[in-house]
Backbone:
């Protein structure tokens, strides 16, 4: 087939003469163009195929990226929820808890404590989702920092609560002679005319008249600083309550505590008597704040009813000349 006979016109003889086409010429003219076309077409199809058909590795990488995006999105949503909750807690801290203890609200700068580092997020760079990863990491750092600040604030408030509870337990707030056992308040706080000295003199406490042997109760928690005999007071108990408070219980018939003892509000510390400069059984009771005598009636709010408290405030106390107390 490669020696196919063809006729060509010879201008010299003016005739068509037979000729045979060489194989090389046939290959060059007929076969090569078709082969080249096939090769080019094959290469083009190969390139197109590799452009649109993913390899298993590429498919796996794409799935991993999709999972990363989903997890970053979920984490971002969780951070937003936690941040909102923390803001609500901070708001309650500033507007409710701190004002109770006369504490100032934390400033924005105090709540947004900074954090250092030349490049805290260098490890997150160079990835397809680097920008998202860095944003989430930064929000987590801010949330963590605010949480630490809030935790410290709550610890401070907790300490204030504990201290306040201790203080409230120590402040004298009950009448040392029970209302049911009290005959009357024989002598009130303030200046009075002394029946023996015949002068007006400051009476630094109140005299609670009761039957001899009636229990005397500690008005608040504290430490017994004195339990013994003192001039004028007779048998006396003094309790240091801390926070600048001290109470004094005089003219006792019997002392039931000794110096150094720890007592709680309501503990029986002595019994009503008439020792010292006294002519009838009663308890001379004083409240001192930073060494200054205060009217004990202002510390009776616990342990008596509202009506009893108001009655005490409105009473016109009458001095009992049978009860003598030079203190």
Residues:
């Amino acid at each position: 087939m490669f020696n196919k006979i063809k006729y060509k016109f010879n201008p010299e003889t003016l005739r068509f003469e037979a000729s045979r086409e060489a194989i090389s010429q046939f290959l060059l003219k007929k076969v090569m163009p078709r082969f080249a076309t096939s090769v080019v077409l094959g290469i083009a199809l190969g390139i197109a195929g590799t452009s649109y058909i993913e390899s298993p590795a590429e498919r796996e990488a794409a799935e991993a990226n999709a999972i990363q995006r989903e997890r970053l999105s979920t984490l971002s949503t969780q951070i937003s929820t936690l941040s909102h909750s923390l803001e609500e807690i901070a708001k309650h801290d500033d507007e409710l808890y701190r004002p109770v203890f006369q504490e100032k609200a934390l400033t924005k700068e105090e709540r947004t404590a900074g954090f250092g580092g030349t490049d805290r997020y260098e490890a997150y760079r160079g990835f397809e989702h680097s920008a998202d990863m860095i944003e989430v990491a930064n929000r987590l750092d801010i949330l963590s920092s605010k949480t630490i600040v809030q935790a410290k604030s709550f610890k401070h408030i907790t300490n204030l609560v504990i201290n306040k509870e201790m203080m409230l337990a120590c402040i004298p707030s009950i009448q040392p002679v029970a209302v049911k056992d009290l005959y009357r308040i024989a002598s009130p706080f303030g200046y009075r005319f002394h029946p023996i000295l015949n002068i007006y003199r400051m009476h630094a406490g109140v005299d609670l008249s009761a039957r001899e042997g009636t229990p005397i109760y500690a008005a608040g928690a504290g430490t017994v600083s004195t339990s013994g005999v003192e001039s004028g007071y007779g048998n006396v108990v003094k309790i240091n309550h801390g926070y600048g408070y001290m109470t004094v219980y005089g003219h006792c018939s019997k002392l039931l505590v000794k110096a150094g003892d720890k007592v709680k509000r309501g503990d029986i510390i002595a019994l009503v008597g008439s020792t010292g400069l006294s002519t009838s059984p009663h308890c001379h009771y004083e409240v001192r704040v930073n060494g200054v005598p205060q009217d004990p009636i202002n510390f009776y709010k616990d342990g008596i009813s509202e009506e009893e408290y108001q009655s005490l405030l409105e009473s016109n106390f009458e001095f009992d000349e049978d009860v003598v107390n030079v203190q």
